Amino acid sequence: xxxxxxxxxxxxxxxxxxxxxxxxxxxxxxxxxxxxxxxxxxxxxxxxxxxxxxxxxxxxxxxxxxxxxxxxxxxxxxxxxxxxxxxxxxxxxxxxxxxxxxxxxxxxxxxxxxxxxxxxxxxxxxxxxxxxxxxxxxxxxxxxxxxxxxxxxxxxxxxxxxxxxxxxxxxxxxxxxxxxxxxxxxxxxxxxxxxxxxxxxxxxxxxxxxxxxxxxxxxxxxxxxxxxxxxxxxxxxxxxxxxxxxxxxxxxxxxxxxxxxxxxxxxxxxxxxxxxxxxxxxxxxxxxxxxxxxxxxxxxxxxxxxxxxxxxxxxxxxxxxxxxxxxxxxxxxxxxxxxxxxxxxxxxxxxxxxxxxxxxxxxxxxxxxxxxxxxxxxxxxxxxxxxxxxxxxxxxxxxxxxxxxxxxxxxxxxxx
Length: 416
Ligand SMILES: O=C(O)CCC(=O)C(=O)O
Ligand SMILES: [Fe+2]
Known about the structure:
By secondary structure, the chain is an alpha+beta fold. The chain has helices spanning 10-25, 30-42, 46-58, 66-78, 82-92, 102-114, 118-128, 134-149, 153-165, 173-185, 202-213, 238-248, 285-298, and strands spanning 220-223, 229-232, 253-254, 257-258, 265-266, 274-277, 309-313, 319-322, 342-351, 355-356, 359-361, 366-368, 375-379, 393-395, 398-400, 403-411. The protein has 13 helices and 16 strands. It starts with 9 loop residues before the first helix and ends in a 5-residue tail after the last strand. The mean pLDDT is 93. Residues 311, 319, 324, 345, 347, 359, 393, 395, 405, 407 line the site of 2-oxoglutaric acid.
């Protein structure tokens, strides 16, 4: 008979959890580190349950075990852990390809925000900030103030912009500048502390989440029949565009293409931009909502999408004429249980350069200048589901300023 391990006291559990995290931070003995955190989780320590859940979800010390990960996160959330609630909210919104459950996401977000969780407060702020309604705007600014006050650097950067432009609040350039200076020097700025209760009701948040996931109305059908080339304007709020840039900027690197023969990474003149890929596991409500909206615009589930890619073009940089569908050697067909071809591409335009950078389709005689906040959808396959060579397209060289976009390549079948 196996002897059961002796029960852990809460103090011992906390010590095991901290020890496990420290070992991860030092990059030593991940299996032992995981075992320590698992022991603390088993003893009922909520923070350890949350971290174990996230480690299993990410597959950090072994292969990913998403179901077990979710179960541990649920236990931590039940015990009141705000960060676990926030992680579950991003999952409920469908970051990993589940059908979105906005009511559940709103409930979890409200709870996490009520406990002062910075990213939850920021997520609510960005969602409510999409609305022109004055009450929603006021709630939104309060949440952003609270996120910034709780030390969230992205919330602080968004708040600077809001104060500067007077979006959702009175413009206050002095305070915006003081805050920007304080952030640049890393000193603590005078900010409002996080709230002791939820800053907006669950019902209000659920309503705004619902509309944030809905497909934007098509404004122009530049090619109405297959392959569709459709445009929606004002599909992203300026704050959402800024959020994507802030989240991805630290991870930008020189774009590369893949050699179709060898699969090797090539820094080719085809694509001279910088890019960053958003791992679907990144926990951010605004990031999930934008991706859901992009997928909905294409009429395909987000679960079929590859990771969203952020692209930045500086003067002289371009994406020369290319097609987005993959060489047949890199496609596992649907019938073989794979995700199939890249059925559609959705591009979200985040920032316009001062000159240049239009997206063009030479064979369809289409030219789309960059309009921040717009989304472009095009099919890559013909009506029979085969690659359509007429989808040849390019990002023209940027002449002045910077062009930022985010591209979602969506497969025929489940990818996430
Ligand atoms: O930047 C552009 O205008 C086009 C981008 C593009 O073609 C892509 O990301 O696949
Ligand atoms: Fe492309």
